[in-house]
């Protein structure tokens, strides 16, 4: 099927067009620059930016893919989770587009979309089930057991406080680096020593592992970095930014990879799929690949352009739903800012 996907859950306005599992266009307009001076995404600003960016992004995507709007078989949209006001812009646009074209609408889960990005990887062999999936983004850090992308996603664990990307952004800020912090920390860490400072690995002690084996916690780590920096400053010493960045990044990566591979071992699943914007982190990918290989686990990493928020992953998920015979969504749905990852599609029409 030829599917047009709309994504507006955060600060990226994404329009993606896919045919089956083939990517035809992935157009993204970001309002990131408008948020940078506030040090984080401002919901009101993001919603307004989506309103302005949607139409031009749609035109670009159609032109790029050589597709006429009338030829689209279905429209897909992110209904959650995300910023309510931002989501509403995409949901409204998708509904009117679907109604005016007379085409089915698939309202899907943004987080499952991050995983679905993987199936657009033309170079990769088909996705095998079950697979453990580690989803690390600006707002989420979840460990999932995916038995079927279109019908069975189980949540094994998630962060109890900050998301990994959020931790990167906060630590970058306290090191005086600009927003978004992930790429900045990555850059600063390149010349640093990851073993310079031993920062805490959240929920990794034996007692924590009993109850929170697949859960994450990054706020203690963030506080530890803040305290370390404060003590240095109080002593009038210079802050070794590269070493702090490298040691912090190592702590995050260590926990993420250790817990993901523990899930692979426990569930006897030799497959690990990585998804979300934080996958852009070179060190995370390297450590995951290295340690997974030692354990006989195959790692799948979608193309990085599909790891951050985009409309193509939303179209891909809907395309997958259509190919497995799922009914479209009814128009009785709205934006759900806290949609759980287990709800792959919302307002699915009852099959009879
Ligand atoms: P969610 O999907 O949970 O709603 P989001 O869509 O805002 O959140 P993404 O776009 O998937 O998140 O990812 C953005 C996050 O990725 C930011 O927190 C950013 O700092 C982080 N990030 C980007 N590049 C890197 C990198 N190289 N290293 C670490 N983090 C990174
Ligand atoms: Mg974003
Ligand atoms: Fe996202």
Automatic annotation (TrEMBL):
The keyword Secreted does not apply. Belongs to the KAE1 / TsaD family. It comes from the Bacteria. PANTHER family: TRNA N6-ADENOSINE THREONYLCARBAMOYLTRANSFERASE, TRNA N6-ADENOSINE THREONYLCARBAMOYLTRANSFERASE, MITOCHONDRIAL. The gene is tsaD. GO terms for cellular component: cytoplasm. Fe cation binds at residues 110, 114, 309. Substrate binds at residues 135-139, 169, 182, 186, 281. It catalyses: L-threonylcarbamoyladenylate + adenosine(37) in tRNA = N(6)-L-threonylcarbamoyladenosine(37) in tRNA + AMP + H(+). The keyword Metal-binding applies. Binds 1 Fe(2+) ion per subunit. GO terms for molecular function: iron ion binding; tRNA N(6)-L-threonylcarbamoyladenine synthase activity. SUPFAM superfamilies: Actin-like ATPase domain. Its cofactor is Fe(2+). Its EC number is 2.3.1.234. Required for the formation of a threonylcarbamoyl group on adenosine at position 37 (t(6)A37) in tRNAs that read codons beginning with adenine. Is involved in the transfer of the threonylcarbamoyl moiety of threonylcarbamoyl-AMP (TC-AMP) to the N6 group of A37, together with TsaE and TsaB. TsaD likely plays a direct catalytic role in this reaction. This is tRNA N6-adenosine threonylcarbamoyltransferase. GO terms for biological process: tRNA threonylcarbamoyladenosine modification. NCBIfam families: gcp_kae1, T6A_TsaD_YgjD. It is found in: Cytoplasm. Its main location: cytoplasm.
């Amino acid at each position: 099927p030829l599917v047009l996907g709309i994504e507006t859950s955060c600060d990226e306005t994404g329009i993606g067009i896919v045919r089956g599992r083939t990517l035809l266009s992935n157009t993204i307009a970001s309002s990131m620059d408008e948020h940078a001076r506030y040090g984080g995404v401002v919901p009101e600003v993001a919603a307004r930016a989506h309103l302005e960016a949607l139409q031009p992004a749609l035109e670009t995507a159609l032109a790029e893919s050589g597709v006429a709007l009338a030829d689209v078989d279905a429209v897909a949209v992110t209904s959650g989770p995300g910023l309510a006001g931002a989501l509403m812009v995409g949901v409204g646009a998708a509904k009117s587009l679907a109604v005016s074209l007379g085409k089915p609408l698939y309202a899907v889960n943004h987080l499952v979309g991050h995983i679905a990005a993987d199936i657009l990887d033309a170079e990769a062999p088909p996705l095998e089930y079950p697979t453990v999936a580690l989803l690390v983004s600006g707002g989420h850090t979840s460990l999932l057991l995916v038995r079927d992308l279109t019908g069975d996603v189980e949540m094994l664990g998630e962060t109890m406080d900050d998301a990994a990307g959020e931790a990167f952004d906060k630590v970058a800020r306290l090191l005086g680096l600009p927003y978004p912090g992930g790429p900045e920390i990555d850059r600063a860490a390149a010349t640093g020593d990851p073993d310079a400072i031993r920062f805490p690995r959240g929920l990794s002690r034996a007692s924590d592992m009993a109850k929170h084996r697949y859960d994450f916690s990054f706020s203690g780590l963030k506080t530890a970095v803040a305290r370390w920096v404060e003590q240095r400053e109080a002593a009038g010493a210079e802050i070794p930014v590269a070493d702090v960045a490298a040691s912090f990044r190592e702590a995050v990566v260590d926990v993420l990879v250790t817990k993901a591979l523990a899930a692979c071992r426990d569930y006897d699943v030799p497959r690990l799929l990585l998804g979300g914007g934080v996958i852009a982190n070179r060190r995370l990918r390297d450590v995951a690949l290295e340690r997974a290989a030692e354990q006989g686990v195959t790692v799948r990493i979608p193309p990085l352009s599909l790891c951050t928020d985009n409309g193509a992953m939303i179209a891909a998920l809907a395309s997958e739903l259509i190919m497995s015979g799922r009914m479209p969504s009814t128009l009785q749905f709205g934006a759900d800012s806290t949609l759980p990852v287990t709800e792959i599609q919302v307002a699915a029409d009852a099959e009879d």
